[in-house]
Amino acid sequence: MRLVMDVYNLNAVIQTKITALWLTLLQSQALHAADKAWRRYKNSKDHAALCDCIALSKAVLNHCPIDHPKRWSTLDQLGRTLRKRFEQKGNAVDLEASIGYHEEELSICQTGHLGRESALNNLSIALLDRFKQTGNSADLDDSIRYLEENLAICPIGHSGRLFALNNLGIALLDRFKQTGNSADLDDSVRYLEEHLSIYPIDHLDRSSALKILSIALLDRFKQTGNSADLDDSVRYLEERLLICPIGHAARPSALNNLGNALLDRFVQTGNSADLDDGIRYLEENLAICPIGHSGRSSALNSLGVALLDRFKQIGNSADLDDSIRYLEENLAICPIGHSGRLLALNNLGIALLDRFKQTGNSADLDDSIRYLEEKLSICPIGHLGRESALNNLGIALLGRFKQTGNSANLDDSVRYLEEQLLICPIGHVGRPSALSDLGNALLDRFEQTGNSVDLDDSIRYLEEHLSIYPIDRLDRSSALNNLGRALLDRFKQTGNSADLDDSIRYLEENLAICPIGHSGRWDALNNLGRVFQVQFERTRDKTYLEESISLFKTAAAHGVSSLSDRLSASSDWIFTARKYHHSSLAEAYSTSLYLLNRSVLLASNIHDRHVRLTSTRIRGREIAVDAASYAIETCQLQSAVEILEQGRGLVFNQLGNYRTPLDDLEAVNRELADQFRELSAAMEQSALSHQAEQKRVVNGEDKIESNSYQRLMNTWDRTVEEIRQQEGFGSFLRVTPFPNPQKAATAGPIVIVNISQYCSDAIIVQETGEPLLVPLPDATLSAVTALAETLIETTTHRPQEAESDRILGDVLQKIWSIIVEPVVLQLTNVLKLRKGSRICWVPTSRACSLPLHAAGSYMPGDKNLPDLFVSSYAPSMSTLLRARTGYQPNSMLSGPRWLVVAQPAAEGEPVLSHVGLEVDTIRRIRMDAKVVEGEDCTRDAVLDSLKNTAWVHFACHGHQNVTDPFQSRFSLLTSNAPLTVLDILKTGLPQAELAVLSACHSAAGDRSTPDESIHLAAGLLFAGFRSVVGTMWSMDDEDGPKVAKIFYEYMFRNGPEGVDCRDAAKALSRAVKRLRVRRVPLERWINFVHLGI
Length: 1093
Description:
Elements: H1 2-44, H2 47-62, H3 71-89, H4 92-108, H5 116-134, H6 137-152, H7 161-179, H8 182-198, H9 206-224, H10 227-242, H11 251-269, H12 272-287, H13 296-314, H14 317-332, H15 341-359, H16 362-377, H17 386-404, H18 407-422, H19 431-449, H20 452-468, H21 477-494, H22 497-513, H23 521-539, H24 542-556, H25 563-579, H26 585-601, H27 606-614, H28 623-633, H29 637-647, H30 650-658, H31 663-668, H32 670-687, E1 695-698, E2 701-704, H33 706-724, H34 739-742, E3 750-755, E4 760-765, E5 772-775, H35 781-797, H36 801-830, E6 838-843, H37 865-868, E7 870-873, H38 877-884, E8 898-902, H39 915-925, E9 930-933, H40 939-946, E10 951-955, E11 958-959, E12 969-970, E13 979-980, H41 981-986, E14 994-998, H42 1016-1023, E15 1027-1031, H43 1039-1051, H44 1064-1077, H45 1082-1085, E16 1088-1092
Parallel strand pairs: 3-6, 6-7, 8-9, 8-10, 10-14, 14-15
Antiparallel strand pairs: 1-2, 3-4, 4-5, 11-12, 12-13, 15-16
């Protein structure tokens, strides 16, 4: 029995030995297969090979118990391969597993162990990767601690010292970027210099050593401003490029790094050769990194940033558009979770913010903020990227505040910038920008609120910012500019002359170090102009006044700067020249009108053009009326008319340019005429596209087609200039000389009412002869504004009838006494105009909201304006002339040329119970009028019918959109498909003559941009209708049938064959008189107005 047991035990031992040998053989085979897979991955970067290596290594590890001699080496390989897969795919699970394996490896490899050096190195690299992903500084500190131990056990001559120096240098550089500790940066440079010194010139790995040392030197330059570090960085990168010829695997990286370093040197020195060389290298880099190449993201990013820098230097919008195009592609190939997404979000956000500053396109600003908010959301507290995320988002929100005036954006901006400063201690590379941007934001908040604490804090931060930069360093420019501006504000508040003297000193130094063409030169010019203007006020030394005017003029012509900045400079020029009666004032106004027009035109659609006019960044809404007032002061009435025609109604004027008749040009150059017609059609299509319609899908995200619009506009501009080179076309689309709009006065005098902050006047224009001036000394801007606000308040809140009549009667009496009566006296006493004659009002500014046509004292025995003359309105003389040109009365006998749009029960609206009676009234006058009503009254049906209509009558709800007037609408069948101003403008109306808008608010003006005259009636007038009847506010439903009956009875008084839309003003006058006879409340009958011929 014992023998049997011994034999059994012996067999078991033998079996165990065989199994162990078999497992050892399997381990050996698996290790060999894993090594083979690793070599295959290193040669081909094949992801499948990497996964095979990981799977095989895990299989080996599963059969290596804790005390197995091969466990530490298996842990080492498994940790390294998982980290490689993390680098390739960005899966954080792989990185966590890698760290776990390397930590176990290090615990096995105690001090003196053969594998400790490798364990320290690999664990530190993995921890550094996790720090870069999470921003956890503990990982970075642990990484450096392990790397310092690794270096300590690798003395000079040790084979591992190279890696130890390199990795420790990189980790210290990362910690410097997080903390700003210059000792870390100096140590990093020292280790990396030793690392490079070990490699001979022709060593294969010298390239990477050159790269990382150059990066550290570049960072030290950015901290200290020592140009020797920058030059050394460029020198090392130039050497690196030489040893990476075409086809070399490292050439993309070499091109990228050298290009970026040259851009940094350009920023310091302003040497355009560095900028051009940098871009040339970056373009080559992108060319050798096709779609799918691992280096394409870096190439796209670097070239995008470089082109943005060149745009800032020379102002070529093509560079800015190309920059954004490259940065958009970069973001598209960096999806959520990708290691490059942070940088992609940051740089695209900055570029879009710059384009917003250039063009005023609010979509660019919104996209910029959206990208920068996403960046901040993935940079938690402690993350390396949080500092720049806070800075850039703060700047973008400051830009939105300047556009909208919303103080919440300003407060958020300050909050983000204050947090940025807290995480940028003294010596931190981000501290200069934190100080500068926070100082500027606080200065803006002081200028809004007057809080002196913000001003003092601003100056304190800006003084520290300036102290960082040595004299003559080019990036000192912004520090000098900002501090000079803040000190000027404090002087204005306190009167301390020391602040003014310091402001002048800093701003003069700034101008001296900003060469012509430098992006900061506009600030230098404009702010120095402002401080000299203040110094003139203080000293009355005219030298300062002349210098101030000269600086403003130069800043307004600074081509590198945005149009809105140039317009700001020209506004300062106007203010100074007007205040001190300088001879350059007319030139200043002319410059501003040109810049305003160009600035508005930069927006690709009419919505954004209107937004630009309402923006607090563009001080252009009063330029035309103020310029006209100056022309009147200097007795140049024709020039005043020309100025108002040029500078008012910009949005419609620009659309009108696209529809310019080309008959004369076709006779001279048909090809050029066709080219202009095609380009104008494309420009109009863009302009009349609502913001949402201009978007296209790019890589899963909506993008505004700003790039294509900018190119289109540039081509259109060039074509206009080419047309002007043709003989006889030198004035093509230029300011129309007075005799041309004067032709609009053929049916009666036109009365322009110019309301300016400086003086108010009426100009009476007749068909022939010189204009006649009527001073309106009591019609001050404040008085007219008060009347307009009272009118809006009363017609909006609608008090009891007696109270409403009292208030409105008082308003009409004041309008009569300060505006209308002086004009009537000239019309009757000087021009001998007969009672019942037609006059046309062209009001400006807040007078656009006043019922001039109904003015009167309404005292017993007195004659009021409606009793004397028949009034019409026109947005401009040019609009009136366009409506009059080519008109021939057409008989209403041929076909259903009269359309009636009736919708008494629009979705979500109160029922209009009198619409049916209104339709019946029209049918009794004209049986074959086409009526679109009820279920058939849809937007598409109405638009389709309008195309073949001469007359149209709307009987429905109307609504004014105060924020987007081009979305003012008629309510039809469904609430989600109304008929808007924009819809009407898009529709071709070749037969249009008369439109009667029996709807609320159809001729209601816009408070923010009254001179633009954007409402339903004006939209129909521009779209082709020659005569339009509308309402200034809500109308009473029961007045619709009453007005329609009298109106159309007069229009058809001579039968269908004798109808003439030019009778519409008189027809409306008769209908309104009938309402007056019936003693309807004032609010109801003064509501109706006529526009056009």
